TrEMBL record:
Species assigned in the record: Streptomyces halobius
Keywords from the UniProt entry: Acyltransferase, Cytoplasm, Iron, Metal-binding, Transferase, tRNA processing
EC number: 2.3.1.234
Cofactor: binding details: Binds 1 Fe(2+) ion per subunit.
Sites where the protein binds Fe cation: 110, 114, 304
Pfam family membership, one: TsaD
Full protein name: tRNA N6-adenosine threonylcarbamoyltransferase
Length: 347
C-alpha cells in the first residue's frame, strides 16, 4: 500500500511516503533551533511552527516521492502520545487531506511508529520482536508480537527518559540543545572508564526491566560542580564518555536480558537515542554474544520523522485494520498498548 504519514508530536514536522516497506519520501522540517535558546521544546512555539511548515512539507514529500495524492491508499497521522497542541496540527491536516481526497485516515501511535519504521530498513518485523524504545520522552522495553495490534510493555523508566538525561547533562556542560548528538560527538574523544558513574536499578532486588536515570543525572551534575568548585577544568570528553557509557550499559544489559527471559531472538532499538553511536556498537556486541539478531534503523529514521508514521499506516492497511473515524482525537497520553485508534465505523 502507498501511504502518506504525518508526524507532529514534538518539534519535528515530518511527512513521509512509503510503498509497503519501501521508503519513497522523508521530508522533515524541524523547529529545534527556535527552542534551543530556551533549553527545551516550548509547546506553543512548536505548534505554531507545525502550522507554518505543514502544507509545504506535505508538498515537498509528494514531490520527492514522485506520486500524486490521488494514488494514495491512505493517510496516517500520529494521534499520540505527544504535545497536545502540536498533535492537533497534524491530526487536523491529515483529516483535511484524507477527507478531501476520499482516502481512509489512520490515527497511529508515535511509539509503535518508532518501532515499525525498521521495516523500511530491514524488511518485515519478526514476530515477536523485542523493542528497546529510547527517546526524549520515553525509555521502555516492549514485547511486540504484532506491531499493529499487540504491544506489551515489560518495563520503562521510573523517572527521566534516556534522551532527557542526555539533554540535561548537555545543559550542565553548557553544550546546547538537544544534548544527545553533542554528547555522542564529545564522547568519541573521551575515556568511558575515566569516571565511574552509577548504573540505576541494576541491584539484585531492583525491577529487572525498569530504568532510572535521575540518580545518574544527579551524580554527574555533582561531579561537575565539585570540579568547578575546586577551580579545575571539567574534562568534557571524559564526562560525556563516562556518562554515556553508564546509560548505554544499562540499556543494552536490560534489553538482552528481556530477550533471553522471553525467548525472543530479535531486538530492535528505536527512538532518538537509538541514533547514539556507542549504544549501537555496544548493542551489536552484546546481541552477537547472546545470539540475538539486532535491528537498528539508520539515525535519520530513529529521530522523529513522517516515514515512520507512514510505515505503521501501511502495515495497518496491509493487515486490513479498521480506519479511524473523522472525529479522531489527538490524545497526548495515548498508551503504547494501542498501536492505532480504530474507528467504530459509520454511525
Ligand atoms: P518521544 O518519542 O518520546 O515522544 P521525542 O519525539 O522528543 O520523544 P525523539 O525525536 O524520538 O524524541 O528523540 C529525541 C531525543 O533523542 C533527544 O532527547 C535527543 O537528545 C536524543 N538523541 C538524538 N540523537 C542522539 C544521539 N546521537 N545520542 C543520544 N541521544 C540522542
Ligand atoms: Mg525532536
Ligand atoms: Fe519520538
Amino acid at each position: 500500500p502507498l501511504v502518506l504519514g504525518i508526524e507532529t508530536s514534538c518539534d519535528e514536522t515530518g511527512v513521509g511516503i512509503v510503498h509497503g516497506h519501501t521508503l519513497l519520501a522523508d521530508a522533515v522540517a524541524s523547529s529545534v533551533d527556535e527552542h534551543a535558546r530556551y533549553g527545551g521544546v516550548v509547546p506553543e512555539v512548536a505548534s505554531r511552527a507545525h502550522l507554518e511548515a505543514m502544507i509545504p512539507t506535505i508538498r515537498r514529500a509528494l514531490k520527492e516521492a514522485g506520486v500524486s495524492a490521488s494514488d494514495l491508499d491512505g493517510i496516517a497521522v500520529t494521534a499520540g502520545p505527544g504535545l497536545a497542541g502540536a498533535l492537533l496540527v497534524g491530526v487536523s491536516a491529515a483529516k483535511a487531506y484524507a477527507y478531501a481526497l476520499g482516502k481512509p485516515l489512520y490515527g497511529v501511535n508515535h511509539l509503535a511508529s518508532h518501532i515499525c519504521v525498521d521495516q523500511l530498513e530491514h524488511g518485515a518485523l519478526p514476530e515477536p520482536t523485542m523493542a528497546l524504545l529510547v527517546s526524549g520522552g520515553h525509555s521502555s522495553l516492549l514485547l511486540a508480537p504484532d506491531i499493529t495490534s499487540d504491544v506489551r510493555p515489560l518495563g520503562s523508566t521510573i523517572d527521566d527518559a534516556a534522551g532527557e538525561a542526555f539533554d540535561k547533562i548537555a545543559r550542565v556542560l553548557q553544550l546546547g540543545f538537544p544534548g544527545g548528538p553533542v554528547i555522542d560527538r564529545y564522547a568519541r574523544e573521551g575515556d568511558p572508564d575515566a569516571i565511574s558513574f552509577p548504573r540505576g536499578l541494576t541491584g539484585p532486588r531492583d525491577p529487572v526491566y525498569d530504568f532510572s536515570f535521575s540518580g545518574l543525572k544527579t551524580a554527574v551534575a555533582r561531579w561537575i560542580e565539585a570540579k568547578r568548585a575546586a577551580g579545575e577544568d571539567v574534562p568534557v570528553a571524559d564526562v560525556s564518555a563516562s556518562f554515556q557509557e553508564a546509560v548505554v550499559d544499562v540499556l543494552t544489559r536490560k534489553a538482552v536480558r528481556a530477550c533471553k527471559d522471553s525467548g525472543v531472538e530479535h531486538l530492535m532499538i528505536g527512538g532518538g537515542v537509538a541514533a547514539n553511536s556507542r549504544l549501537r556498537a555496544m548493542a551489536e556486541r552484546r546481541c552477537e554474544d547472546a545470539g540475538i539478531t539486532l535491528r537498528v534503523p539508520r539515525p535519520k529514521l530513529c529521530t522523529d520523522n513522517g516515514a515512520m508514521v507512514a510505515a505503521l499506516g501501511a502495515e495497518m492497511v496491509a493487515r486490513n485494520r479498521p480506519a479511524s473515524d473523522w472525529d479522531l482525537p489527538a490524545d497526548s497520553s495515548l498508551p503504547v498498548t494501542e498501536p492505532h485508534v480504530p474507528g467504530e465505523g459509520p454511525a
